[in-house]
C-alpha cells in the first residue's frame, strides 16, 4: 500500500485500515471541493491533521491561515472564513 498522505501511517498504526480508509475518503472529498484551489494552506493541498474525538474516533482537522478579511494569508484566496 502506497501512502499518499502524511498522516496515513499514524492512522494505520493507531486506528486500523477501516478508519484510515474513511479518513482517505474524507480527504478525497475535500480535495474535490477545493479542486480549483491549489494552495497548500486553504486549498486542496491542505491534508489536515488527525484529531481524536473523545469517543476515540479520528477525524481530519484542516487548519488554514486566514486573516480577519476572510482571505488566506498565503495565497490571498477568499475562503469566506473570518477570524473574529
Summarize the structure.
The protein contains two helices and two strands; from the N terminus they run H-H-E-E. By secondary structure, the chain is an alpha+beta fold. The protein has a two-stranded antiparallel sheet.
Write the layout of secondary structure elements.
Blueprint: H1 8-15, H2 17-33, E1 49-52, E2 58-61
Antiparallel strand pairs: 1-2
Helix pairs in contact: 1-2
Description:
With 84 residues, the protein is of the alpha+beta class. The protein contains two helices and two strands, in the order H-H-E-E. The chain has helices spanning 8-15, 17-33, and strands spanning 49-52, 58-61. The chain has a two-stranded antiparallel sheet. A hairpin with a 5-residue loop joins strand 1 (49-52) and strand 2. Helix 1 (8-15) packs antiparallel against helix 2. It is elongated. The relative contact order is 0.17.
Low-confidence stretches: none
> How much of the sequence is in beta strands?
5-15%
Shape: elongated
Number of strands: 2
Mean pLDDT: 86
Write the element-wise H/E pattern from the N-terminal end onward.
HHEE
> If helices are DSSP runs of H or I spanning 4 or more residues, what is the number of helices?
2
Structural class comes to alpha+beta
Largest sheet: number of strands, sense, barrel closure: 2 strands, antiparallel
As laid out across the biggest beta sheet, the strand order is 1-2
